[in-house]
Inverse folding.
């Protein structure tokens, strides 16, 4: 149905930048909410940033002013630009979409997660 493939993770430096990408493919009719979540060592998964179907954005308190979520509708790619990185940003980052997918000719709402990409920020 829907595949989400993340890329762009790796090792960053405190104060530096990284950009994550999430390429969506499959029988997608339209996106509702798209988002990035993260799960740090020993922590629960938390919302980093999201864009709703209406276009409004929401950011986690710890990343406000540093991270920016965006999407390229043409290529169905979701981005997370991460600036002013901090060691506490170290986590596995997951792409998430809530989309209308086409199954048997019908539009069905469903949620999907990427496999996760590791981001490590060195001090």
């Amino acid at each position: 149905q829907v595949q989400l493939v993340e890329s762009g993770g790796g090792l960053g430096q405190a104060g530096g930048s990284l950009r994550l990408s999430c390429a969506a493919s499959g029988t997608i009719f339209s996106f509702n909410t798209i988002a990035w979540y993260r799960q740090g060592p020993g922590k629960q998964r938390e919302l980093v940033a999201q864009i709703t179907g209406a276009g409004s954005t929401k950011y986690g308190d710890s990343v406000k002013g540093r991270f920016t979520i965006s999407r390229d509708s043409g290529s169905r790619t979701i981005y997370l630009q991460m600036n002013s990185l901090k060691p506490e940003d170290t986590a596995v980052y997951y792409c998430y979409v809530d989309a209308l997918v086409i199954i048997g000719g019908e539009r069905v709402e469903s949620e999907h997660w990427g496999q996760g990409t590791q981001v490590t920020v060195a001090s």
Summary: The chain has a mean pLDDT of 95. The radius of gyration is 14 Å. DSSP finds no helices and eleven strands in the chain.
